[in-house]
Amino acid sequence: MRTVIIEDELLAAKDLQKLIQQLDSTIEVVAILPGLAAARDWFSKQPEPDLLFMDIQLSDGVSFELFTHVKLECPVIFTTAYNEYAIQAFKVNSIDYLLKPIDRTELKVALEKFKKIKQINQPFDLQSHIQSLLQDLTSAQPAKKYKERFMAHYKNTLVPVPAERIAYFIKDELIYLVTYDNQKMIADFHTMDEVEQQLNPAQFFRANRQYIIHLNSVDHIRHGFNGKIIVKLRSPLFNELDISREKAAAFKDWIN
């Protein structure tokens, strides 16, 4: 049985792949796709799988957008960090979901449900499910608001820093924010995932495990080895950082 994982965090995708194959060795993960652009390209050339795992919030958009470009009939198991109202929408519409971080037992239940549907040859009208789900999500969830300022520790004080002043966040044991005038302050967060969830994805990009960068901090980019992109930040920052091959397409879409 063939399955595809659409997930922009490679480690999360690899962990999910490992769990799937531990639970059922007959399931073959034929592709791990890092975002919408990669998914559109892959599905334009390959037959659809028997089952699709799909993260909802991707680095280059919301995964539902894929269905406006590609006609898919296979069942989908979504992975999501949405709140309880959105999760209820999944339940009502009989679409499986896994709340991050992925739980082994919940994954097992989702796979068993999929197998039952497959065994009885029950039709799965994916397009109507998606349309109904989108309506429920729209009514259930207000538009997401992103943080406009962040508290940071600087010279024994706690200061508010507007988001537009932040050139990038960096994890170096602690998590720091760095302003455009190159002031480095300790951010009031424990993980980069927490930071990412508070940022407007139109303005900030998760370049790798260490950096989240602001659009205006980019001076120029160049191509590196093995499909990587090298990003040079503008003066007086001067940092260089790598965008992995898996995130290169999403980064190009974002920067454009």
TrEMBL record:
Residues 2-115 form the Response regulatory domain. The keyword Signal does not apply. The modification 4-aspartylphosphate is found at residue 55. Keywords: DNA-binding, Phosphoprotein. SMART domains: LytTR, REC. InterPro entries: CheY-like_superfamily, LytR-like, LytTR_DNA-bd_dom, Sig_transdc_resp-reg_receiver. The keyword Hydrolase does not apply. One of its GO terms (molecular function) is DNA binding. Residues 191-256 form the HTH LytTR-type domain. PANTHER family: STAGE 0 SPORULATION PROTEIN A HOMOLOG (PTHR37299:SF1), TRANSCRIPTIONAL REGULATOR-RELATED (PTHR37299). This is LytTR family DNA-binding domain-containing protein. It comes from Rhodocytophaga aerolata.
